[in-house]
Amino acid sequence: MKRLSTILMTLLLSSALLFSGCQSSTDDTDDSTATLQITVVTDATWAPFEYVNEQTHAIEGFDIDLMKAIAEKANMEVTFQNVAWDALLAGMATGQYKVAISSITILPDRLEKWLFSEPYFNAGQMVCVQKTNTTILSHDDLTGKRVAAQTGTTGFFEAQKIANATVKSYDEIGLAFQDLINGQIDAVICDNPVAIDYVNANPDKLKKVGTAFTDEYYGISVAKGQTEILSRINLGLAAVIADGTLDQLIAKWNLNP
Known about the structure:
Mean pLDDT: 89
Order of helices and strands: HEEEEHEHEHEEEEHEHEHEEEHH
Number of strands: 15
Helix content: 25-40%
Distance between the termini: 7 Å
């Protein structure tokens, strides 16, 4: 992960220098000294990246901490709104929402609908099964099995590629893991950090098998036309990578591979 941060820092600092060099000294339409207030939407069902604290009812997680750190560097004030995944995707595409951070993988079809920040995290897809399962050892053993994933996620897209698999989709990934624990499905496919979180919470019932079988980069989603917001986010992201904040948050949320 340290190597990933170094690569991202190089890309982001290059973007920041390019952006700065493109600004006219007489251009007062984009006042970077003015505080920008934005609402950031997230589907807070994807721990440890975003979830609702059961005691405080506050939205917490790695993505939330990262967005706050970016906002501080980029002179933005952010508030967070919990939105269901399908509504989040649709709202970003129509411009109903301006910014979303929610473990969103940068994909070609999504790039056609909205803008993305530079990448900030690489999370591949992982397979989880019951602790007692001895027949599924990796992604290659899912042929003909009952496989679950969250609707509209890259895990669901990968599940659909498995030959003769019965694919079940869920609005929330936690429901998929509950059915896995109850034996109603054979495996769950999801982002590796999420898999780690659920396995750690249920070590006597669940386990990961194999290794992450994809490379997927998360980005912060920005509605088309919101170029000032995107520029500030990229500059703030470059800053939190450069000063080590990103690595500190990765360690805080136990996201090191």
